[in-house]
């Protein structure tokens, strides 16, 4: 009888929110996971990271580094991070819940809810009756990151979601709706506004009252101020020139349905358990909604063998359900493997992390203890551009000084035709680079990319300017032979 009681208590703890972590791994496996996280933090420069692992119905938590390095606040399973694009699965859940409640249908045209919303394709207005909520849910609307995410307005006023969607009015679509799947974060902002229109509530209040609270996600937030009030919100960081510094990115409240929900690995463990059917103490309606949310749109070709569902990227047989996320100063990854009863959630307070490290954590669970962290493409780009900046600046100074040395002579040689052509070519190259520097959207680049992108371009322009100066001054010669 005593064993049965203990077993029932353990189940109750597991199903009511993973209140107590249960470390069932061997010491060597735990040490390997912790070592991997420590190496990732050290090598990437990302100050803090936390991971929750569901394995065989048990939850495991690991953290490394600092939620706030300057304050000495360590990262833990209670640390709150921006979820970035992992937020989309919550918005997908919200709008599918409304469908299950009979408040809307995902096959409804968007014009039914946003009659003023218009889009163009090849210069002509698209029939908005043919674009459904499903097109936005599955990223088949023609709104893509490559063409439509750069101008998301900054701000945190209550009308920012409305302003964000209004910014998309009459946008030129990248492809005709329904023809392909191409990821575009703003699709979920459109869905967020539909949630507001249909519910009569703000997106934030709807999600909190209709999704988070019924699902027992009591440490998941839609208002940054609420997260800050807990004292657990991580400071975000960014890395440039081999250094990591605190960075407070601009507010994009209008992009909240797509990328700015805030949570911790403890709540995310429960969220993953809900997705896998491990957590049962939720309203019955959500079981149907969850099943729908994992169904990818197979009417369009897969991208890298993955289809898009409702805030999830899934393969054809749904043995992989995952989603990465990256904000200017946070990085996330959620991977669920239903057949293996395993799931991972990695949350970090820097975008420099290689999110595929969750695969290495799985390898450790499978018994392959020797795993090493590999730098991310973002970090590699910064290393290359930072090194390039330094080299180009040194060369620019060298050619400038050599040009000054030549310039000090008093005797001249006439400019040759060859030298005129070379000088003119270099001058044109300098002007082109300067135009490129001025034409680029630096306000967006400096928020979302490493600063070394800018410095590499500027240093390149400086080098061509110095070389132009050096070639031009060759007309002066201090040692003319008699």
Could you explain how this protein is built, in words?
With 482 residues, this protein is an alpha+beta fold. It is 43% helix and 14% strand. The model is unreliable at 1-23 and 476-482 (pLDDT under 50).
Features:
alpha+beta, 17 helices, 482 residues, globular, 15 strands, disordered C terminus, 43% helix, three-stranded mixed β-sheet, disordered N terminus, eight-stranded antiparallel β-sheet, 14% strand, single chain
Number of strands: 15
What about the largest sheet? 8 strands, antiparallel
Radius of gyration from CA coordinates: 27 Å
The helical percent reads 40-55%
Q: For the record, give the distance between the C-alpha atoms at the N and C termini, rounded to a whole number.
A: 112 Å
Counted by DSSP, the helix tally is 17
Q: Determine the strand fraction and express it as a percent band.
A: 5-15%
Low-confidence parts lasting 5 or more residues at pLDDT below 50?
1-23, 476-482
Kindly name the structural category: alpha+beta
Q: Which geometry do the CA atoms define?
A: globular
Spatial ordering of strands, largest sheet:
3-2-1-15-14-13-12-11
Task: Calculate the mean pLDDT score and round it.
Answer: 88
